[in-house]
Amino acid sequence: MTTAVLLLLLAFGAYLVAVLENWATSGRFQLATPAFSALALLGRESVLPRKPDRIFFEVAPTLLLISAVLAAAVIPLTPNLIITDLATGALFINAALVYVLVALIMAGWGPNGAYAMIGGWRFLGQLIAYAMLIVMPITAVVMRAESLLTTQIVVSQAGLWNIVYQPVGFVLFFIAAMALAFLPPFDLTTAKGELAGGVEAEYSGVRLAVFRLGRLVLIITLAAATVVFYLGGWQGPWLPPWAWSAIKILAVTAIMLLAGRYMPRIREANLLSWCWMFGIPLALLNIFLVGVLVLVFS
Questions:
Q1: 77 near 6, Cβ under 8 Å?
Q2: Is 193 helix (H, G, I), strand (E, B) or coil?
Q3: Whole-angstrom Cα distance, residue 212 to residue 166?
Q4: Quick check: 123 and 105 in contact, CB under 8 A?
Q5: What does the alpha-carbon distance between residue 78 and residue 24 come to, in Å, rounded to a whole number?
Q6: Which of 25, 78, 126, 132 has the fewest Cβ atoms within 10 Å of its own Cβ atom?
């Protein structure tokens, strides 16, 4: 029952993300637009490239969706509303999200097209840049909670949210989450202005609908992980826990969608150099400071 409820909430959240993304892009807040777009895609013919790697081409959209859903499986919306409270939940999120890279490399390689392949390899360049900025901030969060349980991570923030306790880690994780979801200014993997959609370029019809659904679920999953790790999860006054989770997740999603719209696209080489020159030292500093605070105030 819990699994069904969470999957329905995830689907509803993905729909709201589509509404917010359309609003951020076009400036028009229209609740029905994602439904019409989905129906248009489902009614359109799924064109197959001339010489594809058929297995990679077919599996990539589904794998992107599955990886996002798997990561969401260990994210609690309330103390009891979670699919599975794994003892290694924090690490499981990172492990599940690794398959986003696999899905996009397959989507780039499978169609046997230049634009798609460039988009896939660009995402690989982004992964080398942001990968440590996912793992190292999570490490600091786990150090404070003294547990890998995502529910325990939320409970550990009862007195003070991690966004205040470790603001550097929050900024690094937020940037890495935007890069993982290939949102502007990290949308190198799609880059509609120069790659005609990149990894999406050769997909159409139902395949493209599944691919875009996977990306929407990925965005809502990363926003929910940000809320759990840094914004106190379901905690808050007056309102019930599920309401606080929903409000925080939608707020983080809106910020993720709007934050990069007015910034120029970042080249993967620059992203790589900045993350390794500044991001990783800052992440190490964050771990050190959290370790000192844990020892002093334990």
A1: yes
A2: helix
A3: 33
A4: yes
A5: 29
A6: 25
